[in-house]
Amino acid sequence: MLSRTRSHVLLAPFRVHNYRTLRRSLRAYTNPISTLYRYVSNRGDYPVEIGVRTPVGPVRVVAPTFHDLRTINEVFCRGDYVVGPDVRVVVDVGANIGISALFFLTRNESSRVYCFEPSPINAPRLRAALAPFGDRAAISETALSDRDGVFEFNAEPVGRYSGLVAPGYARDLVNVVEVQTVNISDALDRILEVESFIDVLKIDTEGSEEAILRSIRPDLLPKIGEMFVEVNLDEPLFPDHFTQVSRPDGIAHFRAREH
Length: 259
Fold this sequence. Notes:
By secondary structure, this protein is of the alpha/beta class. The chain is 28% helix and 26% strand. The strands form three sheets. A seven-stranded mixed sheet has the order 5-4-3-10-11-13-12, with helices on both faces.
């Protein structure tokens, strides 16, 4: 299990966003003291169920490893994907084990999430996590990319750090498999045959985010309300369609301009 670096721990008390996360965690977790102790100390057995309060009531989120507890904290407490209470349609590219999808599905009782997750390790966990939501969660075990094809994918055992073996992927290759990729524009076309609008597009693919983002066809951009993309950009993308904020947590947040 990976431990956090000494500099990360020493500097943590001086980061303002950590205080905000702590305050939110006291409200978000059903048992905040034990959950925060587990998180800070990096102790405890796994898998573990973590109780989280949501607008539709408390839910239990399974964390197979400490790394997944980090994701729960980032999504439900740090506020990586803050959306309004009336969110309807979400596309989750790199859905992992379903923690972000659970967040979107629990903003109200009618939201729908289209998940794409090619990892053979993550996909069964994703299906189990979202089973209680029935057809509100659609799951595809294909990888969205900037092109169709069959490509190598590093399905590392933790699951949080899996990704296509391509420029930008910086993890050690430990379990390389082949996966089917689909061009993101084609996938969005199919979703928009059913839905009139995509409120949120979230992309977290461990290195291929920028290529995916840049390959979205321009005619699709007006049909997307906002995007959360784990990418560092040197310049604004799609300035005619979106305002763009690059946040300290490494997520670029795009919000549709009003016309």
